[in-house]
TrEMBL record:
It is found in: Cell membrane. It is a multi-pass membrane protein. It comes from Rhizobium lusitanum. InterPro entries: BP-dependent_transpt_permease, MetI-like, MetI-like_sf, OppC_N. GO terms for biological process: peptide transport; protein transport; transmembrane transport. This is Peptide/nickel transport system permease protein. The keyword Kinase does not apply. Belongs to the binding-protein-dependent transport system permease family. Keywords: Cell membrane, Membrane, Peptide transport, Protein transport, Transmembrane, Transmembrane helix, Transport. GO terms for cellular component: plasma membrane. The chain crosses the membrane at residues 12-34, 81-108, 128-152, 199-226, 246-268.
Amino acid sequence: MKHLPLWLRSGRVQTGLVIIAILAVCAIFAPWIAPNDPNEQNLLSILTPPAWADGSDAMFPLGTDSLGRCILSRLIFGTRVALTVAFIASFGAMIIGAILAHIAGYFGGWVDWLIGRVVEIWLSFPPVILSLILMVGLGTGIRNVILAIVLVDWTRFCRVLRSEVLVLRRRDYVAAAQLVGFSHWRTITREILPGTLPLLITLMSLEMGVAVIVEAILSFVGMSVGADTPAWGQMIADARQNIYEAPLNLLCPVFAIFFAVFGFNILGDGLRRSLDTRLTQTERT
């Protein structure tokens, strides 16, 4: 364990990476892992109970839904939508938020004031409501879901990172770089960005969990992917009408969302504790 990087020695980071690795394997190898076609309807096997219950079918380990579709297969293929949105949307929101945060914190003055007012106005709208409004205008589809999340959640990065940039902006080594003649671009990328990178990585891992929840909400109300693409929120919506006959159909996608969000959140918490020098120094003392 001693030869591993400090951040990788954390139990939280290791747990989060294992969970994300499991989800990634399911998403990448879904056609080979899933026991059935997720969209294949077997009307003779509607609401089949799971394998451990009476009347089960070995072809459907977790049973079937109201259209005879395999629950396990739909869960596995739904991982693709969740992780695609989580990674791409979080990365896009991070890029926009980080750029504006570094510009605002470094230059200050009217630039900081203008970006700060835009962030405050944007944050005045409830995130989920704003996402729904954007989806109404953009239309359904996974690309529009990603775009909506990016347009809503870039403020999370900008608001937190700006305060960190303001602190680093006053450090002596930044002033020394300016005295030497470093350009603004070189000062930000060489002197300030390395100091904000740990916080940036932590925020991105936490944002991935938020993106999974937002996508599930949008697919629950039918504003995410199409009906031919399995998604966890879509599965929850389909299972409501048979919640008493087949409660597992509702519990499985709920647990999948919880499992993914828990993995991203515990990874983010572990990275925050490992990479933030202020926290590590406090724990040692």
